[in-house]
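Section 5.1 Outputs to date
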Amino acid sequence: MRTDSDLADGAVSESKKWKNDEIGGEGSSGIDSRLQAGDEIINGKLVVHSLSGNERNRLFLNENAGEHFSDHSALAGLDSDSDSRGFAILDYDRDGWQDIALVNANNPLSQLFHNELGKFSANKSGMIAIRFRGGSTSDTPSDLSNRDGYGAIVEATLADGTLLKREHRCGDGYASQNSATMIIGIGDHASVSRVTVRWPSGKSFSCENVSEGTLLTAFENRTDEPFTQKPYRSTGTPAEPLARP
């Protein structure tokens, strides 16, 4: 929806593009109702108005820190022609790789895609995981952050000085919520030099020398012990690339 402050009233709803049929070219006050009806007869031919092009799903991978994106839809098996409505990101088997859960309006009603990039990547798949425990645990007003820490900013500094920055969010898709566990990839680094969590309340805590494969739990209201650590992966080790002939 356009919310431009300098857009004149009626500039869109009264425009030719909005009021005139793209196929027949004629203008009519009933164009909205015809679009809602879905089809009509124009010059003896059936014209179907649809806002859904039956597109297949697409998976694009971030390449070179956002320089471009590559289409891996077919390779990943995600190029389904189902009428998909929502998806969520989670690591359901705790192997350190984010998986995808998909919900469709038709069969199959749900799909779960296991991420196996770790088997095919030539690079190591190092990571750390973070869970958040905000200080506010009731419905009364508080100066502390929400229970799940949404809105917290995480900064992870690697040994070579690289700074990774993430925001803790609950979801990015329609009617969907991602896993509340944040996963940060660190490549072939054996540890993270420093992890800082900046809570929405303004509080900030840091810990140092976090080993690869660690699950951190960050607590906003524990000044004496703001972090706990334990192994994250169910197997304890990163996925190894498949042997190549």
